[in-house]
């Protein structure tokens, strides 16, 4: 369990699952596995009738977003983003990491058939970013780590907003209201939990959470938003306890399964010129757009400081942060499946763009973070001497 709570191993597990999915999809058993992912599983007496792949993306990933939202609640109230001053500079950097990739995507893939994919390269995978920092960032100052963490968290917020606002379809207000009421009851129960009644109230909260998820799904709002709302509504102490219990399952099971199913993509047997502009737009926008956007906007944010004082985060550190931001992976894969839900070919090519762009950013960020960490270790040794 300790290994699954670490920062390095889950990132390797996630990447390995995605690579395995891509290999399996292009192997002799690929067709059978893809057919398996499309098997419909219905819950009798309910409108819930989803394929296995959609159960993974809609229900299991809601658990992941619950954990993300619990962390967001903590950071916004008692953590790195609990004041405007703390949040402003990473927020400006994150804004550049969203706007510039969108701009690059639209320049490359402006065609009406592909331009709906513009949200895809805006995401940052916080699990991968932390994994790279853990592996290569020994010696980085805490202020650099805090900036990177805040940047990734704000990117998560942006991704959640995009999912909630852009991909709601034919919203059923009655189902949504019931879901919100159930979430409010869930929040109330979380505030009544004590050691004496935990054995009764916690199972009841789990049932309420599942039913609330079902109503949010039925409302036409993407079901992962139910996980976000539950994570923001739960009492913070109970939320952190739940996140601690769920963390090994999220890292060791939920995210690898999602990565595997998302990467079940048959590589098109065509020349590069025949590939969709969406693939090239994502492939460029994730590693290049994030570096340019975060570095440019982050430099502007750091320029606002007392005269004669050095910037809080230096330019090379901003470039390393931009490279880390280009690891889109989990949320970008989800956005790919949502943006091109009605076009399987485009969805598959967008997925390849996410995998390729994230891999480039992963390699680049590993080099840049390692160089910056080495620089700070040398400074520490020089100061000691």
TrEMBL record:
Location within or outside the cell: Cell inner membrane; Cell membrane
Domain of life: Bacteria
HAMAP family recorded: NhaA
Organism, as annotated: Microbacterium oryzae
Gene name per UniProt: nhaA
Record GO biological process: regulation of pH
Coiled-coil intervals, chain numbering: none
Membrane-traversing stretches: 52-70, 91-110, 147-167, 173-192, 221-237, 249-267, 279-303, 315-340, 352-371
Protein name: Na(+)/H(+) antiporter NhaA
């Amino acid at each position: 369990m300790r290994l699954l709570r670490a920062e390095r191993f889950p990132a390797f597990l996630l990447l390995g699952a995605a690579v395995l999915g891509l290999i399996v999809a292009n192997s002799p058993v690929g067709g059978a596995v893809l057919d398996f992912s499309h098997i419909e599983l219905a819950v009798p007496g309910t409108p819930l009738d989803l394929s296995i792949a959609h159960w993974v993306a809609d229900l299991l990933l809601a658990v992941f977003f619950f954990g993300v939202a619990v962390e967001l609640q903590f950071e916004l109230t008692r953590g790195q983003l609990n004041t405007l001053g703390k949040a402003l500079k990473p927020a400006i950097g994150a804004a550049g990491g969203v706007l510039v990739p969108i701009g690059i995507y639209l320049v490359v893939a402006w065609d009406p058939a592909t331009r709906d994919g513009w949200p895809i390269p805006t995401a940052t995978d916080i699990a991968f970013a932390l994994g790279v920092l853990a592996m290569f960032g020994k010696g980085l100052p805490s202020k650099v780590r805090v900036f990177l963490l805040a940047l990734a968290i704000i990117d998560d917020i942006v991704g959640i907003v995009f999912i909630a606002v852009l991909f709601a379809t034919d919203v059923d207000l009655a189902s949504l209201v019931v879901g919100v009421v159930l979430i409010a009851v869930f929040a109330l129960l979380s505030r009544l939990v004590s050691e004496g009644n935990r054995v009764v109230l916690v199972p009841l909260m789990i049932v309420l959470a599942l039913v609330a998820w079902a109503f949010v799904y039925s409302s036409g709002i993407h079901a992962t938003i139910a996980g976000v709302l539950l994570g923001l509504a739960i009492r913070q102490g109970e939320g952190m306890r739940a996140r601690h219990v769920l963390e090994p399952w999220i890292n060791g099971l939920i995210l690898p399964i999602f990565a595997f199913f998302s990467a079940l993509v048959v590589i098109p047997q065509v020349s590069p010129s025949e590939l969709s502009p969406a693939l090239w737009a994502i492939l460029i926008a994730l590693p290049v757009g994030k570096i340019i956007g975060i570095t440019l906007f982050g430099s502007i944010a750091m320029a606002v400081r007392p005269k004669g004082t050095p910037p809080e985060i230096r330019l090379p550190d901003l470039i390393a942060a931009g490279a880390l931001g280009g690891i889109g992976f989990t949320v970008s894969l989800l956005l790919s499946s949502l943006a091109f839900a009605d076009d399987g070919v485009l969805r598959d090519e967008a997925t390849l763009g996410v995998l390729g762009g994230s891999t480039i950013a992963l390699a680049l960020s590993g080099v840049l973070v390692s160089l910056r960490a080495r620089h700070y270790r040398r400074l520490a040794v020089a100061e000691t001497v």
